[in-house]
Design a protein that fits this description.
Belongs to the peptidase C40 family. By secondary structure, the protein is of the alpha+beta class. The chain has two domains: 53-228, Lysozyme (Orthogonal Bundle), CATH 1.10.530.10; 236-374, endopeptidase fold (from Nostoc punctiforme). The protein has helices at residues 2-7, 10-46, 63-66, 69-78, 85-95, 125-143, 151-163, 166-172, 180-194, 219-224, 248-253, 271-275, 281-291, 304-307, 362-367, and strands spanning 51-53, 57-58, 227-228, 232-234, 262-263, 278-279, 312-314, 324-327, 335-341, 344-349, 353-358, 372-374.
């Protein structure tokens, strides 16, 4: 080392030292910037900047439809319409009941470029759903749908999915809002144009008196009988309110599953599980909040780690009905439930399924560290 110092001029050593110090400072600033950005991202989750869109619920659909939920979700996620999975399941129920190789009835649609354009030409169900999801996306974008709870625009989108894109222009020229009367009038006009071909006939007896035999004039009602709308809410943040975000409603909604549900770790992350009352603790909480119009997490990605970053932390002494309570069971925040009152909470328990628990029970007192959040 002494030999090196003698060989290299002193001014070069000083210059080299300054360069090394500069590089170190640059790297340090970079690391600090990344750290600050990461912290900002975490605080952004709590700050209420994000608007979440409630996914809605599918109702009374067949097992043949429910089995396609993962495939619909896969393509919906790819095309940016995942919050509408329940609505697409309802639509599939009307289109095909989930049966056949073209469950979304996409053969005649614009996005089918692989098979012929006649009904049921598609022989690959995955391709049918891939094309149908894109058709659906185009319809809701053209209709101006803002959320799964935007029913006025959803009705226009659904009817246009059935009639074709010409219905958008027709609605725009006739008040800009879907009505059943407009659907009948459009069908009448289009039927007169194609009646001579002999290819069209009334799908429903109700359409015969109107001679509205182009498409299905009752398509909107037929789809929506399987669908419970979602809604838009702000996620987290703000000052704590006088009560939990949904007060007793979110605490009460899950009572229907007491005695008729099953705890499965990782369960409750698809509509098939939910229909059978299969949950774990976090998926039950997500489901309960969705029932009262609050979307907390994607159905397939909820966990205690996603829930423990939402809303505002409140003192255990101030907890109210509808607040979310965490327990340090097998890990920190390993279990979660919904506060009913200062002495009880409801949640999906490992050995019971959904049940109401006493916070004064020695076990719960032992694992409760005081973490309560208000969504």
């Amino acid at each position: 080392m002494h030999l090196v110092l003698k060989v290299i001029p002193k001014k070069w050593l000083i210059t080299l030292a300054l360069i090394v110090m500069g590089l170190f400072s640059f790297l340090l600033l970079g690391v600090m910037s990344i750290f600050i950005a990461a912290m900002g991202g975490e605080s952004g989750t709590d700050a209420g900047d994000i608007t979440y869109t409630g996914e809605g619920q599918v109702m009374n659909v067949s097992p043949e439809v429910l089995k396609w939920e993962p495939t619909i979700r896969k393509h919906a996620k790819a095309f940016g319409v995942e919050p509408f999975v329940a609505l697409m399941l309802a639509q599939m129920m009307q289109e095909s009941g989930g049966r056949g190789s073209d469950p979304m009835q996409s053969s005649e649609g614009a996005f089918n470029t692989k098979y012929c354009k006649s009904p049921n030409c598609i022989t690959d169900p995955d391709y049918s759903i891939w094309a149908g999801v894109q058709e659906f996306k185009h319809a809701i974008e053209r209709a101006g749908v803002t959320s799964p709870g935007d029913m006025d625009h959803i009705k226009t989108a659904l009817q246009a999915y059935n009639f074709g894109t010409g219905f958008f222009d027709f609605v725009g020229a006739n008040g800009g809002k879907y009505t059943k009367e407009l659907a009948i009038k459009f069908s009448q006009q289009q039927y007169q144009k194609v009646k001579h071909t002999g290819m069209y006939h009334c799908l429903r007896p109700e359409a015969v008196p109107y001679q509205a035999c182009y498409g299905d004039i009752l398509y909107v009602d037929a789809v929506l009988k399987y669908y419970q709308p979602g809604s838009v809410v702000s996620g987290g943040g703000g000052n704590p309110r006088s009560g939990g975000s949904s007060d007793s409603k979110v605490a009460d909604v899950g009572r229907q599953w007491i005695g008729r549900s099953t705890y499965v770790f990782g369960g409750g992350r698809n509509t098939n599980d939910i229909a059978r009352g299969i949950f774990d603790c976090s998926s039950f909480v997500r489901w309960a909040f969705e029932q009262v119009g609050m979307y907390t997490s994607p159905i397939g990605a909820v966990s205690t780690e996603t829930l423990n970053k939402i809303g505002t932390k409140v003192s255990a002494n101030d907890m109210k009905p509808g607040d979310v309570i965490f327990f340090d069971t097998y890990k920190h925040d390993g279990h979660v439930g919904i506060v009913i009152d200062k002495n009880t909470f409801i949640g999906c328990q490992t050995n019971k399924g959904v049940s109401i628990e006493d916070l004064n029970n020695p076990y719960w007192k032992k694992v409760f560290s005081g973490h309560v959040r208000r969504f």
